[in-house]
Amino acid sequence: NAQLVDVLPGGVTFVSATPTQGSCGESGGTVTCPLGTLANGGSATITIVITTTGTGTITNTASATGTVVDPAPGNNTTIAENTTVNDAPPVASFTTSSSAPLTIDFTDTSTGTITTYTWDFGDGSPTDSSQNPSHTYAASGNYDVKLTVDGPGGMDMITVTISV
Known about the structure:
mainly beta; 3-stranded antiparallel sheet
């Protein structure tokens, strides 16, 4: 009888474990999969799904054991995978309010990890890199305002037509 035991690394949350044969269970951060008897030359694959809130590389090691001595241990294989967890891309979003005639206050409501903001106010003026800028327009009208946000997970932009 073959069995896989996987002690999950810190900082992860177990979601599921699906073997191609047998069953799996998790308790206290340890996944145990009694696989039963493998056919001569046979194999089993176990897919373990976890979630994490951090970024970086997760290294996970599992061990497989059997109750019968393998007469040809040299033909055994183990596949180990390192998974790099990256930040999700940010999602650009903002709201507006008016603080004076022709002056618009922009409030960033973007989500995700953001390192830079680029505001294009749609009137030919220089861009602004502050998170929550105010901008005074020279004349009333409709303007296409574009917010671009960048972060470790990528970038996103949104364009909104405002009426001043």
